[in-house]
Write a structure and sequence with these properties.
The complex is a heterodimer of chains A (about 170) and B (about 325).
Chain A: H1 16-31, H2 43-54, H3 61-75, H4 81-100, H5 105-129, H6 142-148, H7 150-158
Chain B: H1 18-39, H2 43-73, H3 77-114, E1 125-133, E2 141-144, E3 157-159, E4 164-171, E5 176-180, E6 187-192, E7 198-203, E8 209-215, E9 225-228, E10 240-248, E11 255-262, E12 271-275, H4 287-292, H5 295-313
Antiparallel strand pairs in B: 1-2, 1-12, 2-5, 3-4, 3-12, 4-5, 6-7, 6-9, 7-8, 8-11, 9-10, 10-11
The chains are: A mainly alpha (about 170), B alpha+beta (about 325).
């Protein structure tokens, strides 16, 4: 699969262990004390969104559910709060994936923004229904940062799939 | 190259339709929420997942802790000497009170025995270190480094050197979770030291507390200190909880709006003390029997309860 569908560059297939590794790193990043700072994105949601757009056959709602359960326990939040948000994110991301990848990267980021916004909105709704306190407007700011990070994230997570520079003329791919 | 996936996508075997899967997962999520919020059935599942997440959390917090420790190490000798001096001074100032306290407690026990009043339980517990704040923005909780291994149980009160911090809500094998008194709707039964007026103080979620359902003409003043009344059977009586910061009395409402600030360093990091479980208070007299009589049995019990509660305000 190419970086975008319209580019002529052909990528190698993704390695499953790299997807798992990126998810684990995302969970670790989420657990850092910096997660309290305003505007720091929910890394798990971001990486999950990336892989469900890119590899919707491999990463889907099952992954979203497991990661959501992990984040629920780690955050000491209501069980099901993250799972619901992540499952919805994965569903909409994979259903949009055929369209999103036709656009250049910056326009992809614009389409990713509403997808990421699902996560804090759903969590906010669940938190309020469960009798929580209002977390402040900055709680809803991270999807903007996440959408800006879409371009570097695409570059970074696709690095292992780039082809070697020396091309073998006898190989078809 | 064998690890690479070169097979064509399966055209006919694609598993359940995405919408069906979505419905399934959403249904599971919602039932999880209901089970967790209404019935609290999921603590075992939480503990199972926590086996994976707690080491990860410790790992993630290691750099920050390392930096903090390095900072302490490189702190100048002057600062430490100053602090040492101050602590010695404070210790000396406290000495007369502490020395007399032992004698006072003994005397108090004796007097209470003379009056046939319940003896007050001595406060004991274990010191715990706050590891980190839970990331959930909808509540105020912290994680401490004592768990089931150290006989910590859910519901135990937590104090620091100034007053009540919160209550243990979930216990894992090696850590436990404390809900702070500033968490939304966390309630602590309190008593005003000045006049012994009893009430319940609720967390507001923004670092403040509110004394709810107090009539507009209630005898509450700014600066009043609230201590635990001990009527709940969880918190021992006499621990400072909060100080009244602002009172809004409006004629259009029947209740005054009384805002308090916690006395303890509730939102700060540091060390806290988990108090041991309180022995159960005398059971409530049954209303029907109390009305009908049996004075030789029930009357002493009722008498026991009231001075016990009064005694808390006397500090």
């Amino acid at each position: 699969m190419q970086t975008t569908f319209s580019s002529s560059r052909i990528l190698l297939p993704v390695r499953p262990w790299f997807i798992a590794l990126s998810m684990i790193v995302a969970v670790l990043l989420n657990l850092l004390p910096t997660a309290w700072w305003p505007g720091v994105p929910d890394w798990v949601a971001l990486v999950l969104c990336f892989w469900s757009v890119r590899e919707f056959r491999k990463v889907g709602m099952g992954w979203a559910f497991i990661l959501g359960a992990v984040m629920d326990v780690a955050d000491a939040s209501l069980m099901g709060q993250h799972t619901l948000a992540y499952v919805l994110l994965a569903y909409f991301a994979s259903s949009l994936s055929r369209r999103v990848l036709w656009f250049p990267l910056l326009q992809q980021a614009l389409q990713i923004l509403p997808l990421l916004a699902i996560v804090p909105l759903v969590q906010f709704a669940v938190g309020m229904l469960a009798g929580g306190q209002f977390p402040g407007l900055l709680y809803f700011a991270w999807p903007l940062v996440g959408a800006l990070l879409w371009v570097p994230l695409t570059f970074l997570l696709l690095l292992p799939q780039h082809q070697p520079v020396e091309r073998d003329a006898n190989r078809p791919i | 190259m064998a690890a690479f996936d070169h097979s064509p996508p399966p055209f006919f075997k694609q598993g359940p339709a995405p919408l069906a899967l979505l419905t399934l997962y959403v249904a599971i999520s919602i039932s999880l929420m209901v089970l967790d919020a209404k019935f609290r059935y999921l603590d075992m599942a939480r503990q199972a997942v926590a086996v994976v997440t707690h080491p990860l959390q410790q790992l993630a917090h290691a750099p920050a802790r390392g930096i903090a420790q390095a900072g302490e190490y490189f702190q100048s000798v002057g600062t430490l000497q100053d602090e040492n001096q101050r602590l010695k001074h404070a210790k000396l100032e406290m000495a007369p009170t502490l020395l007399r306290l032992q004698q006072l407690e003994a005397e108090n026990t004796r007097l209470r025995r003379l009056l046939a009043v319940h003896e007050r339980q001595p406060a004991g517990g274990q010191v715990a270190q706050i590891l980190y704040t839970a990331r959930d923005p909808f509540s105020r909780r912290v994680i401490v480094d004592k768990g089931q291994q150290d006989k910590v149980g859910a519901g135990l009160p937590v104090v620091d050197d100034a007053g009540i911090v919160g209550q243990v809500t979930r216990v894992y094998p090696f850590v436990s979770e404390i809900t702070l008194i500033t968490d939304k709707d966390q309630a602590v039964p309190v008593q005003i030291v000045r006049n012994g007026l009893r009430s319940v103080v609720f967390g507001l979620g923004n670092g403040q507390l509110e004394l709810r359902f107090m009539p507009a003409n209630a005898d509450v003043q700014e600066g009043d200190v609230l201590v635990t009344s001990g009527l709940d059977g969880i918190f021992q009586p006499g621990f400072p909880v909060a100080k009244v910061a602002r009172i809004e009395r409006e004629a259009s409402y029947s209740f005054a709006r009384i805002l308090c600030v916690p006395v303890a360093g509730v939102e700060n990091f540091g060390e806290v003390m988990i108090l041991a479980a309180r022995t159960a208070p005398a059971p409530r007299p049954e209303p029907s029997e109390a009305v009908e009589g049996a004075p030789e049995d029930k009357a002493p019990k009722a008498k026991k309860r009231r001075p016990g509660a009064r005694g808390a305000g006397g500090h």
